[in-house]
Amino acid sequence: MAVKMIVEGKSDARLPVAVKGTREGLVFLLNERCPYEDVRRCLEELLTGDSAGLFEGPQVSVAVDYGDRQLTPEQARELLMVFLARENFLLREWGGNTAARQALHGQRPSVRAMRQVIHKGTVRAGQDLYFEGDVVVVGDVNPGGQVTAAGDIYVFGRLRGLAHAGVHGDETAIVAAAEFSPTQVRIANVVGWTPSPAGKMSTFMEFAYLTEDGMAVDKMQYAGALRSKEPLRAGGDRDGGQSVREGDEPWAPPL
Amino acid sequence: MGTAVVITSGKGGVGKTTSTANIGTALALMGKRVCLVDTDIGLRNLDVVMGLENRIIYDIVDVANGECRLEQALIRDKRFDHLAVLPASQTKDKSALQPDRVREMVMRLKEQFDFVFIDCPAGIEHGFKVAIAGADEAIVVTTPETASVRDADRVIGLLEASHLKSPKLVINRIRPKMVKQGDMLDIDEVVQVLAIDLLGVIPDEEAVIKNNIKGEPIVMHPDHRAAIAYRHIARRILGDSVPLMVLDEEPGLWGRMKRLIGGRR
Q1: Mutate to test the interface with A, among B149, B193, B194 (most CBs of A within 10 A)
Q2: Could you give the CA distance from residue A214 to residue A242 in angstroms, rounded to a whole number?
Q3: What is the pLDDT of residues B89-120, one digit of tens each?
Q4: Are A144 and B158 within 8 A, CB to CB?
Q5: Closest by alpha carbon to B64, among B79, B86, B81, B49?
Q6: Rounded to 5, what percent of chain B is helix, strand, coil?
Q7: pTM of the model
Q8: Cβ B154–A140 below 8 Å, yes or no?
Q9: How many other CB atoms are found less than 10 A from the CB of residue A169?
Q10: What is the predicted ipTM?
Q11: Which CATH code is given to the segment(s) A115-242?
Q12: Where in chain A are all domains bearing CATH 2.160.20.70?
């Protein structure tokens, strides 16, 4: 069903370890899709290598979330030792779906639902607009122009520039446009671009979204169906929004 | 009180100076009092295109620094009494001018002239800000190439963010043949992207360059289509509604014969 193909540089290419700062302290998110060795090496480098100085300072409470990964007892001990080696770390949480992770992802939907902006006018080359929630652009986004939003981006016009939805990591965000021919689309940390300059104008409004295998573009009428399959946002499961419509072919990432 | 128009483009080499010289001269031809101001400090060439280089004594920086009166720096054109050029300085750099000083200068020129055309330097830095400071209107020049259209788009964004809300567009150096073959952006595409009013389209002609070297704007020679196009722009500035020129190449002898006989072209 996917109408157009966009190639991308993949969510699996994400860093094996992501560190987020919250009010409670640090949250370490260990990428569940990376090989275990990568995670361990990256973690060791992070905490004992060049960047070790970043974590120095007063006592800080730390939560570690390893997602859906099945850790063997040896692996778990190995990882824990890396954290315990740091004297100012106070291990607060350890697990697969920690409260810390939920809090991290739970914040977003409320912010996003509240802040919706309609931007009127053409976004021209060199202009870089940032929105804290969803945005509707009434006008074109010209090549060289950029729209960035924490939530979704809808363009009532031609999208020919760059659009970055879910800039803070919301993988359920979408980018939609009446004429969908962007130079580049980014959702969360996945980058996609149209393989060749779009020649013919499509008669449909189209939108880009993330699937488990990367980015896909589809006709706008499926956006509602995609969204309705998502679990409730508040306290939601991170991967829940990626359930793809049956029959949809996700983009194949050429790795 | 006259009108000050800045002619700008972002990208260099698209024909800002040529357009300034020609639109200004065209309006002078119609009896308007016109002053052309070159703000491209350090790279002055408006005076060269107008063929007035040898008459320069003072320049715009001298006026700004109070080293001479504005009237002393103005050079009367050799063809029209009511056409003048305020040349840029060749030796200083862009920082020698400040927006406030230029705004003041343009205000004074507007008292004496019907139109003041300000030739803007390429780029969007200090020189650009100085050039647009005193202007009431803006004309953006672009060529039908992606890079030039991109820069024009950027400049239009900056103009709209300043006090110049509705810039007008001139598409320069269009080659009907290349457009037809799909090797060049066509007028519609450019206008669609930039989404501003089109003031005119100038066909690409070798004679334009030839005349620049001679120091005589092509608009003086109405046998060239570029000259007619510039005259049309001048008329549109005065408020006439002149339809866009049909830019198709003139049919050659063979084409004309075919048409005579009644064959399809």
Answers
A1: B193
A2: 10
A3: 988 888 889 999 999 999 999 999 999 999 99
A4: no
A5: B86
A6: 45, 15, 40
A7: 0.69
A8: no
A9: 18
A10: 0.77
A11: 2.160.20.70
A12: 115-242
